[in-house]
Amino acid sequence: MTSAAEMPVSSGSTLTLHSDSQNAHETDPLRKANGVYVTVHGHFYQPPRENPYLDAIERQPSAAPFHDWNERIHWECYRPNAFARVLNDRGEVVEIVNNYEHFSFNIGPTLMSWLERYDVEVYQRILEADANSSQRLHGHGNAIAQVYNHIIMPLANERDKYTQIRWGKEDFRSRFGRDPEGIWLAETGVDYATLEALVAEGIRFVILAPSQALRCRPSQTPDHPNPEWIEVGGSQIDATRPYRCYLKPTLDTSTSPLSTIPDSPKDESSEGLPYIDIFFYDGPISRDMGFSDVVYNSNRFAGRIGSAVRGDHRLAQLISVATDGETFGHHKKGTEKTLAYAFTKEFPQHGWTVTNFAHYLSLNSPSWEVELKSVTAWSCAHGVDRWQDDCGCGGEGGVWHQKWRRPLRDALNWLRDQLIEVYEEHGRELFRDPWQARDEYIQVMRDRSSANVNRFLSRHQTHKLTAAEQVDALRLLEMQRHALLMFTSCGWFFEEISRPEGTQILRYAARALELAGEVAGVQLEKGFLKHLGLAPSNVDSFKHGAEIYRQLVLTAQVGFKQVAAHYAISSLFTNHKPAETRNSLSGKDAGDKHHHPSQKRVYCYAANELDYQLQRMGSLTLAVGNLKLVSEITWESEHLVFAVLHLGGWDFHCCIQQFTGRRDYSQLKEKLFGALQQASAAHTILAMTQLFGEDTFSLENLFAEERHRIMRLLSQETLTRLGQLYTQAYRDNYGVLMAFHRDEIAVPQELQVAAEIALGHRCLMTLRSLEQDISDPQKSWNHIVELEAIATEAKHLRCQLNIPDGKQMLEQLIARSLWQLLHDANGSFNAEIQLLERLIDVGDQLNIHISLHRSQELYFSSLHSQIIPLCNTTLGNEEDTHQCRQLLKLGKKLAVDVSMISNQLT
Hints:
By secondary structure, the protein is of the alpha/beta class. The protein contains 31 helices and 19 strands. The strands form 5 sheets. Strands 1, 4, 5, 6, 12 and 13 form a 6-stranded parallel sheet that branches. A 5-stranded antiparallel sheet has the order 15-16-17-18-19, sandwiched between helices. Strands 7-11-10 form a 3-stranded mixed sheet. The longest helix has 29 residues, at about 705-730. The protein is globular and about 100 Å long. The relative contact order is 0.07.
């Protein structure tokens, strides 16, 4: 008897199999337009917040307890969407979803640069999401580009339009490894000149609000060469289909060196005209996502999406929504979970295909064309007046005006035009094509290594540049970079010019002014202030933009002397310590000095320490150094000498001057250290004044981060002493405290505070010891027992421990121990898992609200790759079965759903 495997296949069978395969291909919605498609677009963006002089974001108190708003929104939105939880009804993790694999998204280049530096794990998840979506959707990734720093494109001049697009494209290409098919326009601000630039740069599509369409019609065909237009100016456009927008040259582009638009045909035909495709998102649903509670429940969200599906039997339709990506987790906490469940469960259950715009366009080429209103945006009912006029948008319904908007726009336009003259006059001496050099400067912005900068300069230079010319070339390009950053849209978005957003763009303007002066010697600030003086502030203490500039912008400027002062004062609290500290200096002890030439980094400056000497005399500490500072951005440098005297406590006296030669420097050191030997602060300060002049720096002149670090160090001794006093008060009154609690009488505030501080301090010290001894099982157990005792005591006394550092320490210890357990085959499994379980338990007992998210992510990533395969091969192996049960028990403790595999073992 012949087996089924050996039976010959007839030609008829082969045709049937081929036909089945072909039918599957024909009905596969990923390969052929078929059914309902859903696209959720997230516009992820943060404005550039970096100090223009330091290339770093300084602490923003309003974002507390986080360092700055980027960091805060990251932990509330960007990271949760990279690791979005799908939970069961017990609150256990069933799945961890990378929402970026399902979103259509753009992430502003300035935000991506920050993510790349701050959380490379999330950054990689975003890149992987695009690669995975590209693979699933046949070469069309979810990510699209964005105009570089979110300027309102219709208000930009032509060259700035092109640079914004080119920088956005190159930034995208360098990250995602492919050309962008679409691009996000800031605030969806658009006009035909912008579309023209997009077409010239190879962009295939954009996403707009339905209110931006003027009229539409079916595409022209031989049978219907001139179909009638349908007016849709009141947002009535059918958003379930893509549209083709032809660029009829209504503008005079004949004088534009960048224009690619052909002459206009005489008839209504669109044949031969360049075009761009446009998707209009569903306005009502998108509004609901931002301003109602529809995204708090995935079933309700799916129902809302379903209400937009057209029942007219069309072959395919796209329901697309768009909103700020920060909606999901930042504006609306926890809604990344809604999306994760909708993407992976709700939408597929309805038979909908989750896709992106580029993929849908590949399946369904536009069969309708559209014309747009002349100049529009999604967040202004008055075109783009929100970014240039007192139109009322962004006024928050208050009494404040926005009369400052037009003068601010005029001032920056004036400055931009002045800087163009500087750039062209001086740039043509250094660059073969100054504007091409600016367009390609994004390659340097992405990689400021010396080798890359040299390659860039070699490509663009008119001749081999001297060192001074290289500095001028980089200054000119940085001037242009800041001239673009100063148009970031956020500066006009809100109700007042003195807000942080307005101040920030003025700081970019100030830096551009400064760089122009350094290269060309031009003094543009007076003219700029004249224009700013016409921008009235709503805040009486500021009066107008010029006063804001003086109070909030000029005071924040940083020069080489400030950087050197920062370095000098900070050096007293780093590794600059004498080999042996003495209370007096006499005879040979006077040589108690410390020399160590080295190189350090102070924000975007390389600090080459050529000499450093430090001496102490009683409570006085004097350091003198010889320092060369080099900007990593413009390559400009200065050679400086510093002297810093610490008088004890908060008192610092620091002086800076130019290095004028070794002989002068040697004499200066000799005089200063000679003055110090008299053990008189006044005498030493007098000597410093005679040698350096009256210009001095103190602790207040340090950059905020370092100032706060030194303040904490200087406070440590006082806090330790106070901690000891509180602990003593707590111990002395422990019985009294217990009596108050036992009889349920209100505890005196002083005693309760003493208990909380004392127990918090004890807990923090124990956690630090545990961190040091975590590799020693016996010591670790002892520390955990102590933590359990603290938790019991705190519970009895109803103390809430406020130890954010301890919370973070325990979270990291749990994650580190879990990683060790999962990846160290040579470890003692039973001991490690018991220790880990006790760590998790003690976190609950201490009631310090530890987060197990990182540990959940680590466990979940190993669940399918390691744990389930182990459990599937444990038959007959008692040791493996025991190990598997322990790992599953641990998963339950981490609130991960392991019930399916657990049930198989029972």
